[in-house]
Amino acid sequence: MASSSARSGGKPVTVARLNDAVLGCFGRVPPSETVDHLVRYLGTWSGSECVIQFAVKLIAPFLALRARLQHKAGLRASPESAGAAAYAKIGSILGDSRTVWRFWGLLPIFQWLISLERSPPATRALLTIERLQGWSMLAYYPLEHLSYLLSHNIIPSALPSPLSLFSSSPSGKKKLIKLDAGKLSLWSTRFWAVYVFLHFAHLWEDRKLLIQRGRALKKARGGSGLTVEERRDMGGRWDAFWSEVVVNLGYLPLTIHWSLEKGLIKNDVWVGLFGLVAAVTSFRSGWKATALPPPPPAPPAAAPAPALAASPAATEEKKEEVEEKVGATGYEL
């Protein structure tokens, strides 16, 4: 008796077909340029600094406030919000992950300082500013790493002094350096604040160079307007400039707040808000930077080749040939 698949004319169900249908189901999913772009961005150094942490810092206080208001209105039994506590834990985990990820932060700083000396910026002022920024980061990262490791009891709070390697005390005991995680964190953030303040000076120099560039382009064209490509280039440069301004303005109050023992901002909502502004703007800039360039325009279709005109000699030969054929029939041209 024929099987049901044979009677219906369908293909028999085999292991290979099941394999293709189940394990190979992604073959029916079309490629996504958005996903490709996201992978490119998150694979960059700035892409690892995600927006999520600062967004969570805003969501958690909002949920806690909503729970308290609902409790006062008699809409819930407890003023505590389980969702707020969960979001706070996520924010803490994300903060730890970002700190751990920055353990490799010194490598791009070394790379930057080396390339800076071989390819200096346009002005001496910018060179000095970037040198100072690089050195501030060389101090920031080790202090942050030590503070993090101490706060998690990964390293002891007292380490042997490097001087004890070259000298010994009569008792034979090595001199120890006591480390305080809180103070190390304060000083690391202060060096970050130095970087942020220096970046405002950097942006001021960048602004002057952009203005000079725009004037030079107009002067080269005799005062006439810029071309489409030049306007697009200048627009991109100014967009990047203002993005850096917004990012720096977002980080400025945070670095000051974290650089002070008692802090500057009393409400953590503002911490999350400033951080979110900086993170979203940085995400936007990074997203643009990792976008693939647009494909070049297709060349115009080639015009059809003109028909070649016959030479006078060839035309005369053709005419004589036709006359002979026509004359043979008894007709005249």
Note down, in words, how this protein is organized.
Residues 291-333 are annotated as: Disordered. Residues 304-314 have a biased composition (Low complexity). Residues 292-303 have a biased composition (Pro residues). Residues 315-326 have a biased composition (Basic and acidic residues). With 333 residues, the chain is an all-alpha fold. It has helices at 4-8, 15-22, 33-42, 52-72, 82-101, 106-118, 124-151, 181-220, 228-259, 268-289, 312-328, and strands at residues 158-160, 176-178. It has a two-stranded antiparallel sheet with strand order 1-2. Helix 6 (106-118) packs antiparallel against helix 7 (124-151) and helix 9 (228-259) packs antiparallel against helix 10. The longest helix is centred in the middle third of the chain and has 40 residues, at 181-220. Mean pLDDT is 82; it is low at 328-333.
| Biggest sheet layout | 2 strands, antiparallel
What is the general shape? extended
Global Rg: 36 Å
Low-confidence stretches: 328-333
The count of strands amounts to 2
Overall pLDDT metric = 82
Instruction: Kindly name the structural category.
Output: mainly alpha
Q: How far apart lie the N and C ends?
A: 84 Å
**Cross-sheet strand order for the largest sheet:** 1-2
Helix count from the secondary structure assignment: 11
Order of helices and strands: HHHHHHHEEHHHH
Portion of residues in beta strands equals: under 5%
Share in helix: 55-70%
Biased composition (Low complexity): 304-314
Region (Disordered): 291-333
Biased composition (Pro residues): 292-303
Biased composition (Basic and acidic residues): 315-326
